[in-house]
Design goal:
Order of helices and strands: HHHHHEEHEEEHEHEEEHEEEEEH
Shape: elongated
Number of domains: 2
Strand order of the largest sheet: 3-4-5-6-9-10-14
Number of strands: 14
CATH architecture of the largest domain: Alpha-Beta Complex
CATH superfamily of the largest domain: 2-enoyl-CoA Hydratase, Chain A, domain 1
Length: 324
């Protein structure tokens, strides 16, 4: 009876997961092989990647070395939504954006709003020019399927009302790490003069390379306290994810000029997977393009007026020069 029961456990539960270095490596590679959405966009032969990195996997290797090899393999994808996370390393960490130079230029040092997600004001030397910095588009604690827009994002209407007498605005989303597309689209609508489709999304729905859903369009719509005077949108290489969705949305509007430097190039929603050894990883499962079919994954969106920062905040100074 005992022998039969033990055998039955293996029949119903299957073999124990392989937590050896090769088992961990193969688990990551296999999941990406069936689920990752952007191999064709990146021009990557995933089988060749396996041949390159699998020989480095040894039965007695330590966790740090295993992590590095898996990390190097995933880095081949050049995807900001692909992260390998362990107790001793998280690839998603980065330095925060420094607003001190901006604060010194704004009247009374500017003001915070919306749980400090917004920083805004007018410039001392150019009081007719407004400034709005958006830290991110994060989900709030009150996230609801009935109202996907967080309360902090709704503060944009009051901010724009306070800047209604300005002649132009610099909208700064440098180092904006993204978050909720719903929040980004809600805010973008305040800067829209006309309704426009701006993005198409296909989601991976099977293990084959071409298994994708029918593309779904997303639309920017004028709404709320609108600001349709001249706007300069500032981005940099740490502008990513939902912030890049907002960038594509606002680039459909004739009164918006995109300046700064190219965005990071990570548009897809990402999913998070656990590994048996306690690590986790994330991956992109969508193919996102603009309405003409251009894909910016791993490349980023290049501004109309590209300006690489050097020394103090020359990107901001360059944006201000539009209003001389």
């Amino acid at each position: 009876m005992v022998i039969v029961l033990i055998s039955s456990c293996h029949v119903f539960l299957g073999p124990d997961p392989d937590n050896s270095p090769k088992g961990i490596f193969d688990s990551i590679w296999n999941d990406f092989n069936e689920t990752y959405a952007l191999f064709d966009v990146k021009g990557i032969d995933w089988n060749e990647v396996y041949k390159i990195y699998s020989p480095g996997i040894q039965p007695d290797m330590n966790s740090f070395r295993l992590f590095r090899i898996c990390e190097e393999m995933l880095n081949e994808l050049n995807d900001p939504h692909v992260n390998l996370i362990s107790p001793f390393n998280d690839l998603s960490e980065k330095e925060p954006f420094n607003l001190e130079y901006v604060k010194n230029k704004l009247k009374d040092g500017g003001a915070l709003a919306g749980d400090s997600m917004f920083f805004y004001g007018t410039f001392q030397e150019k009081p007719n020019v407004g400034y709005i910095y958006i830290k991110g588009f994060r989900f709030g604690k009150e996230n609801s399927t009935l109202d996907p827009i967080q309360s902090w994002a709704k503060k944009i209407d009051g901010i724009l009302q306070s800047l209604a007498r300005t002649d132009s605005v610099i909208l700064d989303i440098r180092d904006n790490g993204g978050g909720s597309v719903a929040n980004a689209e809600y805010i973008a609508g305040r800067f829209a003069a006309v309704q426009k489709d701006y993005i198409k999304v296909s989601t991976k729905n099977g293990p084959g390379r071409n298994d994708f859903s029918t593309p779904v369009p997303f639309t920017i719509r004028p709404a709320g306290q609108k600001y349709t005077k001249p706007v300069v949108l500032l981005t940099n290489n740490q502008t990513v994810s939902a912030a890049e969705w907002l960038t594509l949305a606002l680039r459909t509007q004739n009164h918006v000029t995109h300046a700064g430097e190219a965005t990071r190039g990570g548009f897809s929603i990402m999913i998070r997977r656990p590994l048996i050894n306690g690590w986790e990883y994330t991956m992109s499962i969508q193919k996102v393009t603009d309405v003409e079919g251009n894909c910016y994954e791993g490349i980023g969106i290049t501004p109309d007026e590209e300006h690489i920062v050097a020394g103090h905040d020359t990107q901001l100074d360059y944006a201000l020069s539009f209003f001389d």
